[in-house]
Design brief:
Layout lengths: L1 H12 L3 H22 L6 H16 L6 H35 L18
Helix pairs in contact: 2-3, 3-4
Keywords: Membrane, Transmembrane, Transmembrane helix
Length: 119
């Protein structure tokens, strides 16, 4: 059904399928830039990805949308999304601490076998 709508929309505008695919590619690149800008605070990356995916879903359904709709979606998603982003960074910090604890050379990373020759 979505393909039929896309074909009908393409015929109405007089665009070739190649032009439509290139427009989608360009929209994906632009949305990637918007996501990168929205992710700059580093705790808002889940909200930025959610807003970007909603924007692309809207564009592929030929509903429309632009920067204002992306920003509105981002504001909606950031209300609870920053907690998810903070939890992601906390998990990353916990993994980093764990890896540092078992590094070779640290007391927890040394083997209990003596380092001399075994007989």
């Amino acid at each position: 059904m979505a393909q039929a709508r896309a074909k009908a929309a393409t015929r109405g505008r007089g665009e070739s399928p190649l032009a439509e695919r290139f427009a989608l590619f360009a929209e994906c690149l632009l949305t990637g830039v918007w996501i990168a800008v929205a992710s700059l605070p580093l705790v808002t990356y889940p909200a930025a990805f959610a807003a970007g995916s909603r924007h692309l879903r809207r564009r592929t359904a030929h509903v429309g949308g632009g920067w204002r709709e992306f920003a509105a979606d981002f504001r909606t998603a950031v209300r609870g999304g920053w907690l998810v982003g903070l939890a992601g960074w906390a998990a990353l910090a916990a993994v980093w601490v764990d890896v540092q604890a078992v590094r070779p050379g640290s007391p927890a990373g040394r083997s209990s076998a003596p380092s001399g020759s075994s007989r």
